[in-house]
Amino acid sequence: MAQRFYGVPVPDVTLNGDLPGRLVVLEGTDGVGRSTQMQLLRNWLESSGVAVFDTGLSRGNLAGRHVQQAKEGHTMGPRTQCLFYCTDFADRLVNQIIPLLRAGYIVLTDRYIYSLMARAAVRGLERSWLKQVYGFALQPDLVLYLRVSLRNLIPRVLTSTGFDYWESGMDYLCEPSMYDAFVRHQTALLAEFERMVDEYDFKVVNADRSVRQTFESIQEHVCAVTEGMLPQSTRLGLTPPLPVPQEKRNEERAVPSDRLREMLAVLLEDVE
Amino acid sequence: MQAIDQHRGRLFAVEGLDGSGKSTQIDLLHKWLLARGYSAFFSEWNSSPLVKRTTRRGKTRRLLSPLTFSLIHATDFADRTERSILPPVKAGAAVLADRYAFTAFARDVARGCDPDWVRELYSFALRPTVAFYFRVPLEVALDRILGGRPEIKWYEAGMDLGLSDDVYESFRLFQARILEQYEQIAEESGLTVIDGTLPIAAQQRRVREIVEPYLEGLLRRPQGGWTSVLAEEGD
User: Fold this and answer.
1) Closest approach of B57 to chain A, Cα-based (Å)
2) CA A222 to chain centre
3) ipTM given for this complex
4) Which residues does chain A have within 8 Å of residue B120's beta carbon, measured at their own beta carbons?
5) Regarding beta strands B130-135 and B192-195, do their DSSP bridges make them parallel or antiparallel, or are they unpaired?
6) How does pLDDT run across B113-130, given as a tens digit for each residue?
7) Where are the alpha helices (DSSP H) in chain A?
8) Could you tell me if A135 and A117 are in contact, meaning their C-beta atoms sit under 8 angstroms apart?
9) For residue A252, how many C-alpha atoms fall within 13 Å in the half-sphere facing its CB?
10) Which domains are present in chain A?
11) Contact yes or no for B110/A12 (Cβ under 8 A)
12) The model's pTM
């Protein structure tokens, strides 16, 4: 149903109302729980019999790996970083997202142009430039913005991956302590997201709550934009994990991970 | 583009079709500046080490669409601007660019990108002190390139546009499109036109005359090494 580009269209791509799929975006800052929600969402939708494809930043065939490697060198300037990610995004849009929407998939994307614009804006790039450069992006059917307070974010990040160089803005902030850098950088990022809520029609989901409560809100929003795609019998709430075919077990991201299975097992026990 | 007047350094760029002779001319200009003791740096289109592997991968595997072709070159340009164009210009040196943003204006638009979008994409670029455009008729450029029946690469020939199944024919048609864009850009952006059919030395004289007035106050190279030894012996 996503049928419009924000600005100047992708060259050579015409949309004649022929994208029957749905483009659903999960946005939010680092450590807010996007990947957990992505996995729950994918599992639920697939259980309902809908074809789902998920994608995320730097997962493109052209530039994905190289963007990751370039980050390891800590040598990218802000504009280079922005355009490198933009190249990867364009590659995924043209080669994955649009073809799969054309084939009727629900495409779930972990972050979209909003994170990329927010990261670049806090590093001093002009918002008007970012908006025009990213104008070739397709307007999603749904943008779920997982809103979290810094107070809740810090313990989550601490107990999962710990503070990361880039996620703390160490490349542009002059802070000797990674904790202080993280606080400053994330505060700035959250403010950038807030600026975008109205302009890009974010559906705000309060992610200060539990995984389960957050997920239920997400499901309601997804139901609203997938009318006619999900069977009548579709139930809200958590779904038991789908069995994983043996030959697929080694394929990264192709199936719910073991972590999801464990998590679901715990959550489902709670219910009973 | 961003004004360069606020910086002490200078930026000289050359543009033109493949076979227009621009690389020869900027190479001669570079040597002349160095010989006169100026600090001059060279930056070539598509040469950022950070981005090179991606461009190569995209080109050899033919993964590039007009949009990603445009963006990966803009990434390369951003890296070179941040790393090797802006710092010397700020420090008061001369930077010489073999192809500049105008190349993207011409090629990306010839590939179907929106002209205004491409210009916005490159709006962070420093406006060169002088941007030379080496104008040659299409047939002259084609003869220079195709004379030896060289191997023309897929994207170089614009094969991605499906203009023709024949590489040479595709290259001709694509270059004609690029030439059309260059002529528009030369006018719109006030490029300094040099007649690329003149003898090499005559073109170079013209280039040096134009560059000369901008050299006053440019950063000089530190003395030392074999050049200064030779210079002393010459006294």
Assistant:
1) 7
2) 14
3) 0.89
4) 129, 132-133
5) parallel
6) 999 999 999 999 999 999
7) 34-47, 64-72, 78-92, 98-102, 113-122, 127-133, 150-159, 178-199, 211-225, 258-271
8) no
9) 2
10) 22-268 (3.40.50.300)
11) no
12) 0.87
